[in-house]
Amino acid sequence: MSDSNSGCGCGCGDGKGCAGAAKPSEKDVKDLKVIIGLEIHCQLNTKTKLFCGCSADFRDDAPNTHVCPICLGLPGALPKLNKQAVIYALKVAKALNLEISEVSEFSRKNYFYPDLPKGYQISQYDKPIALRGKMTVDDDEGHEKVIRITRIHLEEDPGRLVHKISRDRAGYTLVDYNRSSIPLIEIVTEPDLSSPKEARRFLNKLRATLEYLDVFDGEKEGSIRVDANISLEGHNRVECKNISSYKGVEKALTFEITRQRNLIRRGQEIVQETRHFLEGRGITTGSRSKEDENDYRYFPEPDLKPLRVKDWADKIELPELPDAKRERFMSQYKISVNHAKTLVGDIKVADFYEGILKNPAISKETELAATWVCDTLLGELYYRDMKIDAVPRECFADLVALLKDKKVTDKVAVDVLRAMLDDIHEGRKCAMPSETVEKSGLGKGSDDEFTEIIKKVVAANPQAVADYHSGKGNAINFIVGQIMKETKGRADPKSLNKLIVDYIASME
Amino acid sequence: MVSEEEVESIAKLADITIEKEKLAGFTSRFNDILEYFDILDQVAPDETTKDDLYNVLREDEVMPSLTQEEALVNSGETEEGYIKSPKVM
Questions:
Q1: Coil, helix or strand for A355?
Q2: What number is the ipTM of this complex?
Q3: What are phi and psi of B82, to 5 degrees?
């Protein structure tokens, strides 16, 4: 076989749609702009489902125990719309600067799949509850940019399917309708996002905003699910479905960009398709696309009346949202923009910070408190997979007070904090740091106290002293380290350094 | 009016097989039904058919659900409280 008729010669083994296509240069491929739009489904934390009074608090319960004729789609059952879900959707719409529709309507989205007991999902189609909004996000260079929101609509969650393999390898599917008809809002963005990291930041901020509004609980499993549309400039678009975590979004998008770039490098065309994200493997796979938009045969839901709720939105009072809180923290507490961003990124962290500042002993220590919350506490919590609510505010405030009064070194403070978190994590009562420090004698020692130890350590390490004299400044660090060990971190390294240098000088 | 192709594609969406020889029969019966809608469309809406209702809502209050036993009573097959369905993935 000669090269001329064995396909494209690019190694794709295909030849179709590839033969003759000019392969772009590496630089051209690298420079292709990434275009991402998201569809984000969030469960609203109402007490009941969207169209019936079944409790929405189903997560720990046996399958098919939160169901009734309405959410099972039994013949003759009629949906009754939950007012709270409408109010929550309006709250989100207002917070994201959308225009509330004068009239909105529900539609039936028809598809045949066992997660839908009725054979259709009640959703909104051509008359969603709100249109055209925006939210800002930091781009990869740290500059604020606007992401346009296309629309927000209300819809019901489908049931949950469990796929099983049977002995004859045919397999079967188990269906649980507890989730059927849990209220969702779908938030659709314009394709304004330009990188996987930016998409993740957008989601994090969206989650924070929804939690500020108290309409959503991001800690519940499966409470957010994302479909992402992604393309490289000038090429076809691919839809990635089935992304159910914040990390997953970044992973799925990163994988897709690499996959699409590789195809373009080889001169192949991107197939416009729906792909599934496999979270465990971090890859996307092509899935035979279920339906075209037309196949859903949307039509107005005859069992539900239209909504005219524009004036309701005017009466809704929004709480302080992340951006406003960040500005206030910076001006009121004089903390850095990075600390402010970290604190307001989670309302529980922001509340914790303001909570500890209520303690009169540290109410003026806004910077010190921000530093210890952002740079130490959050990391230690993450390491233990703990939530900030578990930390007693008076204990943490007490620790900050010790630092403020210079009663402990940074090193000892970290140790005390770790012990405190370990106690809480393992179900023990956590002691006040000031008591711990007093009991175990971890308080920062006075300079006098260390003089003896310095004498001892210097005498025991003549080589280090000789090195110091021969111009190796680092030798002092060795002695500092020995003394820190000896004093269990109670000495402040900076003042030690000076004490040692002075002492060695006095020996001459 | 619908064509045989459209009936075939709707059957596919509903996961129903229609045998080739029955396709013409189904199509003409669909069209018979659609003709009734054409007749209904000729009736002008008047005051009695006007519907001004909107914002029909209920409060977010929990009502009793069915028991698992009641919920599963119409299912052909079940397993550990789940409804069993043919494989769909």
A1: helix
A2: 0.87
A3: -95, 155
